[in-house]
Amino acid sequence: MKQIFILFSLLLIISCKNASNYSSENTSFKKYSNVIEALKDANDFNEDNGTLKLLSEDTVIPKIQISKQIFEGDEESLIIEQTKRDLIYVIFQSFAVTDIKEIEVTSVPIKEDKTYDNKFKETIKVKREIAKSILKKYLNTESFEDLYKLEGTIYLPNEKFDLLKNQELKNIYNDLTNM
Questions:
Q1: For residue 165, what are the contacts with CB-CB under 8 A and spacing of at least 6?
Q2: Which residues is 106 bridged to in the sheet?
Q3: Which of 29, 7, 118, 20 shows the shortest CA–CA distance to 65?
Q4: Please, how many CA atoms are within 13 Å of residue 31, restricted to the half-sphere of its CB?
Q5: Sign of torsion over alpha carbons 162, 163, 168, 172
Q6: Whole-model pTM?
Q7: What is the pLDDT of residues 26-47, one digit of tens each?
Q8: What is the predicted pLDDT for the residue at 26?
């Protein structure tokens, strides 16, 4: 009986030690060497289906294109809003998960037939410092990591990120295009 108790105690200690490997204390915010790698890992856009393209090999100022699918009959105002939302999402995500100093993002919707609808094409080029000043203005922070929360073992966009992409969409877009 004593041996079973000792064995059970050892198993309990080992399982507690292994569980500590999955605690938030050991889960650091992941940084990527480049934007394309980060976007692929997030599974929001994909090179295979044409929703993610590297437009320039420039490592100083990465130039990428992102696309969300649109459908016949979608309202123009919603397409325009989604295009702006995608720009904001990718710009701030890129600064959060990489150390780039500047980025140029083009958002152009993709139709069901896999052609791009250039009527709604938007491009924004922005420096990290400008994006930081926007964070400061709207969220009183300069940390891009503050846009994420730990869920289990992964970081996901949080309510602050939602504020940028939704409630403050027009203001953030105007700030990004007028600075």
A1: 85, 88, 89, 172
A2: 65, 123
A3: 118
A4: 8
A5: negative
A6: 0.83
A7: 578 889 999 999 999 888 899 9
A8: 56
Average pLDDT, the chain: 86
Helix axes 76-97, 169-178, angle to 10 degrees: 70
Instruction: Give yes or no for a contact between 123 and 106, defined as CB atoms under 8 angstroms apart.
Output: yes
Sign of CA dihedral 20, 23, 29, 31: positive
Tens-place pLDDT, residues 141-160: 999 999 999 998 889 999 99
The 8-class DSSP code of residue 69 comes to: B
Residue 133: exposure state from Cβ atoms within 10 A (0-12, 13-18, ≥19): middle
Closest CA to 54 of 42, 65, 70, 39: 65
Of 125, 133, 134, the C-alpha closest to 58 is 125
